[in-house]
User: What shape does this take?
Amino acid sequence: MAVNKDQAVLEWILGNPDNQDAVLFNYLTGHNGAQSVVPISTSTAIEEYIDGTKKKEYDLALQFMFSASETTDDVNIQHMGMLRRWQDWIEEQERGGVYPDFGPDCMIFEVKNLNNNPEQLNYGNDMTKLFFMVAIIYRE
Assistant: This one.
């Protein structure tokens, strides 16, 4: 029976102690502190091996919605700091070999941040969406 990789990724993300809100899958609400896991590519084959297995990549975006500040206070800096802690957590999981459970037919090689600087999209009503990309490299 195949493991639901989307569910496995969400459960893995829920292990981060920096979760400040419910983490939704593939949906980001517009309220301050909202968090979402959005799969980008879930089975891109990178290499194919002679035994029929494939090296694949599961890419995802971790998205966060925050109220933005137009002043010189440190609100925006705090938000960026939280995302950097998230990126640090991803790196810690890689160093410790703590990966999503893709089941017995998969072997995860690596989890990595794809961009060092979180990206930002501004919305009306002083809201901003911050996000960064993560890749999970595995063999199946």
Q: What stands out?
A: The mean pLDDT is 89. The chain is about 20% helix and 40% strand.
